[in-house]
Amino acid sequence: MLVMPGCLTGAISLENTAVAVAQSGYDVVSCDTSAPKWLSPHGSRKYHKNNDTKDWSTPRTAVNTAYTKSVEYAMKTYEEGLNMPADQKYNLLGYSTSAAAVLQAALLNPEKVDKILLLAPIGTTNTNETFVGNVLKILINAAKHSYQNVKLGEKTQNAREYFTGYIDRQKIRGWSEVPRIIGNAALTDLTEAIYQVVVEKGIPVGVILGDEDELFPVKDSVPMLETVDEKLGDATADTPFEVVELDG
Q1: Which pLDDT tens digit goes with each residue over 170-198?
Q2: What number of other Cβ atoms are within 10 A of residue 203's Cβ?
Q3: Strand order from edge to edge, sheet including 113-119
Q4: pTM value?
Q5: ∠ CA(11), CA(116), CA(24), 5° rounding?
Q6: Which residues of the chain have a pLDDT value below 50?
Q7: Taking a C-beta distance cutoff of 8 angstroms, is the pair 87, 111 a contact?
Q8: CB 4, CB 67: distance < 8 Å
Q9: Per-residue pLDDT tens digits for 58-91
Q10: What is the rounded CA–CA span in Å between residue 30 and residue 74?
Q11: Distance CA 24, CA 28 (A)
């Protein structure tokens, strides 16, 4: 299983998750993500020119491009580093921003993906009609989310390392990444991507939501995911799609 972190923080933010998944019996590769670049040789314009399709489901943003490339690079590195066969299949866990990336990577490389798990995904709470409205809502929720994380940091060393890693990471990657992340979150709509992954590619998808998640509240996420479930209809008999809410 490739464990892909959320925005800005890196693999350390999912250290406990990676350990828990490994303890359940999976071989785990805890990955990092590359920084989005607008005009680099591997930036969004050239990448989408070479890889785009007419039915691309997630938005063509620099963030999604960079994170999708990270998923694809993780697969390649795993195969080359451990001398695995080229037809190696992966389970993909995408947290927050990486939820869009693992779905996009699955649409581009369906033969390499077995199952997908989306943990607190972006793109399920864009209920406002305008981009600006969604940005403002995300900023307000982000403030609540920061307070929530501060409380968490009082309890666990992992959370303190999370914040240390965040600051150190941004010194290297640059703070210009932050507005790109916010814009990406306001644009991303996962509903069609999930539908295509399940129906057209035959890849099972699970979504885990936390009832105390301030950034992507359950009250917004569940209605959007229910529309996906309704659209899938009988398709889930062959390829499961499940949504789980965790208490606490």
Answers
A1: 777 777 778 888 888 888 888 888 988 99
A2: 23
A3: 29-30, 2-4, 90-95, 113-119, 205-210, 241-246
A4: 0.86
A5: 70
A6: 39, 41, 54
A7: yes
A8: yes
A9: 656 778 888 888 999 999 888 888 888 888 899 9
A10: 9
A11: 10
CB 74 within 8 A of CB 98: no
Partners of 94 in the β-ladder: 4, 118
Residue 60, token pair as written in the block: 């063509």
DSSP symbol at 163:
H
Give the integer Cα–Cα distance in Å for 103 and 198: 10
> Residue 12 is encoded by which pair of tokens?
């350390």
Q: Helix count (H) and strand count (E) of the chain?
A: 9, 6
Phi-psi region of 182 (alpha: psi -120 to 50; beta: other; left: phi over 0): alpha
* Distance (Å, whole) CA 187 – CA 220: 15
- Torsions phi, psi of 4, nearest 5? -105, 125
Please state, in angstroms and rounded to a whole number, the distance separating the CA atoms of residues 56 and 32.
24
Q: What is the pLDDT of residue 201?
A: 92
* 3-class state of residue 167 by DSSP: helix
DSSP classification of residue 198: I
Residue 68, CB-side half-sphere exposure with 13 Å CA sphere: 26
CB atoms within 10 A of CB 7: 23
| Three-state DSSP string of 45-105 | HHHHHHHCCCCCCCCCCHHHHHHHHHHHHHHHHHHHHCCCCCCCCEEEEEECCHHHHHHHH
**Can you read off the two tokens belonging to residue 200?**
């057209």
Cβ neighbours, 10 Å, residue 77: 13
CA 58 to the chain's CA centroid: 11
